[in-house]
Amino acid sequence: MSLDEQVDIVNENDDVVGIVSKQIAHRDGLLHRTVISEVIGSDGSWTLVKQASDRQDAGQFVSPIGGHVQSNESVEDALRREGNEEYGLEGDLSFKCIGKKIYRRDVNGKKEHHYFILFEIYSDKKPLLNEESIGYEKFTKEQLKQELKDNPKKFGDAFHFLVETFYKELLTS
Known about the structure:
alpha+beta, seven-stranded mixed sheet, 38% strand, Nucleoside Triphosphate Pyrophosphohydrolase
């Protein structure tokens, strides 16, 4: 999505209250939708990607799929589009919506105020990385729990937010 593409501005109930460019939404800290997805294999492993140096959370592992929902685009269509762009997933996807939560931070000169809509996509496909990612790694749930405990800086802030909000079992010893 380019900076001049349009996004729906939403209120805390996820009702659309306006439409602006992504650039204005980030400049002014306006709440807008973003789809995020974990990719979980048939063996239960999680695939995370390592962010490129020009991205927020540079050099850290994050959810492999994440992007803005365009104005008048369904959340599911945005998930499919982002899954294709950021992972190489095509065709029918097996996915489940996990939940929604507002996430706010200032990063790289932007005021991100995102209405995160979190999914899990179930796939054994290896990711086809684009310019946003420099690598990927598969983690079992136990490895993820241990790494989050021992090496928290290995993971980006948004991923920590998702774990603390939706996957609290990954924080227990």
